[in-house]
Specification:
Length: about 150
């Protein structure tokens, strides 16, 4: 009587390890597809979210430092400046440094400048619209200093 089954006696099928390896490979393939198949508004949406966070950061910096801070919208991006010694000085901190938009993303704004006073209130509400392909995403600053992304 044999101790182990002979090759003809074994049931045919897959082992648990083989099934797990296949599931992992399917999961990795699905992840790659999801990352590669981003929607058409992905570039505009990413840049709008980044701009909204930076505008909120400029507002917060105005409050913390007790000095006016502004966002300047330029043809290819935006930059920040803070009032110091009676003049506007560019902000060079990593989070608020000048930013050039990636190719294919276009920024238009209802205002060239958006300034926050030392209390965090904007001088006036405003919108910045980012476009990429057919996508359009708006960063809106309200009269109370709130910053929202509107898709």
């Amino acid at each position: 009587m044999p101790i182990s089954p002979s090759p003809t006696d074994r049931e045919h099928g897959f082992t648990l390890v083989e099934l797990m390896v296949v599931l992992v490979l399917i999961g990795l393939a699905a992840s790659v597809v999801m990352l590669a198949a981003r929607g058409p508004d992905a570039a505009a949406g990413d840049e709008a979210a980044r701009l909204a966070l930076r505008i909120a950061g400029a507002r917060d910096r105005a409050i913390v430092d007790g000095r006016s801070t502004r966002v300047e919208f330029v043809a290819d991006g935006y930059r920040f400046a803070q009032r110091s010694g009676g003049e506007w000085v560019p902000v060079t901190d990593r989070g608020l440094r000048a930013t050039t938009l990636p190719s294919g993303v276009v920024l238009s704004s209802s205002r060239a400048l958006l300034a926050f006073d030392s209390g965090g209130l904007p001088d006036a509400p405003g919108d910045a619209v980012l476009r990429a392909d057919d996508a359009r995403v708006t960063v809106r600053v309200d009269a109370a200093g709130g910053v929202d992304v509107v898709r």
